[in-house]
Amino acid sequence: MKRLCVKLFAMLGVLLVSANALALEVEAEGGDVVAKTDDGRTWRHTILDKENFPDRSVHVLEHHNHVYACGEGMIYQLDGYNGSVHWRRLLPYKCSALEVVEDSVKVTVLDDHNWEGKKTERTYEVTTSGV
Questions:
Q1: CB under 8 Å to 80, separation ≥6 — which residues?
Q2: What does the alpha-carbon distance between residue 8 and residue 84 come to, in Å, rounded to a whole number?
Q3: Confidence of residue 32 (pLDDT cuts 50, 70, 90)
Q4: Backbone angles phi, psi at 33, to 5 degrees
Q5: What percentage of residues in the chain have a pLDDT greater than 90?
Q6: DSSP label of 10
Q7: pTM of the shown model
Q8: DSSP letters of 85-124?
Q9: Strand, helix or coil at 16?
Q10: Buried/exposed code over 75-106 (b: 16+ C-beta within 10 A; e: otherwise)
């Protein structure tokens, strides 16, 4: 019985340590977000329909163990550990940039099809609940 308890506590310790793994390297490959975690795992999450948007790019960055990704008119907050979607929000225009400014995530959107022929560019702050 004592050996069983020791094994169970050891397994629990391994699970707790791996549950706190962070995404170290984040990159975009076509419509996919690919992240490598500090415990050696790699996860992949598809955010763009590659059939309808074969040449579109995805902007990604990691901030406070979240991975932010935007492509076309959507932004996603993904879990840095396993890539699960925390939330996704519709953007008013096409995503053109993601960056960290003064410890907050900013998304820049661009409307290059304005009826007046002007390009409209806006920047929004990303919060924990959306844009």
A1: 21, 22, 23, 35, 37, 62, 65, 66, 67
A2: 27
A3: confident
A4: -105, 125
A5: 44
A6: H
A7: 0.77
A8: EEEEEE-SSEEEEEEEETTEEEEEEEE---TTS--EEEEE
A9: helix
A10: bbbbbbbebeeeeebebebbbbebeeeeeebe
- End-to-end CA distance of the chain: give it in Å, rounded: 52
CA distances (Å), origin 3, targets 7, 10, 11, 32: 6, 11, 12, 44
Provide the 3-class DSSP secondary structure of residue 60.
strand
Residue 30 token pair: 């076509």
Q: Is 35 helix (H, G, I), strand (E, B) or coil?
A: strand
In the numeric block, which tokens belong to residue 32? 């996919």
User: What pLDDT, in 10s, does the model give residues 78-126?
Assistant: 999 999 999 999 999 989 999 999 999 999 999 877 667 778 889 999 8
* Token pair 């397994």: residue: 11
